[in-house]
Amino acid sequence: xxxxxxxxxxxxxxxxxxxxxxxxxxxxxxxxxxxxxxxxxxxxxxxxxxxxxxxxxxxxxxxxxxxxxxxxxxxxxxxxxxxxxxxxxxxxxxxxxxxxxxxxxxxxxxxxxxxxxxxxxxxxxxxxxxxxxxxxxxxxxxxxxxxxxxxxxxxxxxxxxxxxxxxxxxxxxxxxxxxxxxxxxxxxxxxxxxxxxxxxxxxxxxxxxxxxxxxxxxxxxxxxxxxxxxxxxxxxxxxxxxxxxxxxxxxxxxxxxxxxxxxxxxxxxxxxxxxxxxxxxxxxxxxxxxxxxxxxxxxxxxxxxxxxxxxxxxxxxxxxxxxxxxxxxxxxxxxxxxxxxxxxxxxxxxxxxxxxxxxxxxxxxxxxxxxxxxxxxxxxxxxxxx
Length: 386
Prior knowledge:
By secondary structure, the protein is of the alpha/beta class. The longest helix is centred in the N-terminal third of the chain and has 20 residues, at 102-121. It has helices at residues 3-10, 43-46, 55-65, 78-91, 102-121, 140-145, 170-176, 200-213, 283-295, 298-316, 339-348, 370-384; strands at residues 22-26, 29-32, 37-40, 95-99, 127-131, 162-165, 181-186, 189-190, 196-197, 216-221, 244-247, 258-262, 321-327, 330-335, 351-352, 354-356, 359-362. The mean pLDDT is 97. The strands form four sheets. A seven-stranded mixed β-sheet has the order 4-12-11-10-7-5-6, with helices on both faces.
């Protein structure tokens, strides 16, 4: 029985996999069971920050693995403490809660926003506004927060207390922000929703309304964070600091780690017993994250912006492209041709890409070489112009 047959027999059928078994790789190249090399423009959905088996990352993780792989949060550990310090110092936030995924980081943000309001105003002020086409996770609560009707099936009743408004519509936002509201939660670039970038004018309107009504601004940086957009975190493009923001995916470079960061208003909301995690802040994951952050300097972030501009410039010039959206190395390409067929043809030609709603989605390793990037973009252009 081959790997695909074993997978299909024993793993829950929640994923529609493509017919490719990956066996290894190095950097931005992946190796298939078929013996072919593939240029990776997905990074495990923005997780493998520096690609596969990056030597420095492997060394940092292995070194910690040989010391202490796990202990409970009853005790202090150096990697977790240093990671929290690094995150706060580089973002201006005040404190961090560590978890294991983006959904968990968003759950924590939701709990903290509601508790902030409860502590200050009492009951009855728990509603959170999110945006249509948003995606915040697959738990029952983060699905409720997600503004996609297609995901609000099968698993009801969903957690109450969320209202979804159209992205970019400041009047709809203001109308929804009644006395029962405690926070606005948004992705500055809606990843799963189609790589849609919010305008600065709209984000400024969100901030103004939040200040008027003492609403917390919660930013979901699960996919946009950790250098993906050409800034350490996407809110830095907009020139503000959220009250709370979540991140995960590329934070630990390939290991499961989520983080929820709190600004001054929310830093003391979570107290002993109000939240917790068995694996959150795991020292091996924290070591991986410390290594990732150590490499996300201004030079590398500038390269992310440069490479993103190159992709945009090349593809926008193609007659097969309607538009390119996104920032840095988080890009969506709306095609004139059949999307599923284009993705398949790219794979046949040795380039792995993703999708997001009606767009081809590109999330390459942040350090992908110019040579491989140029080769991959040439393949994409060839495919969409066929």
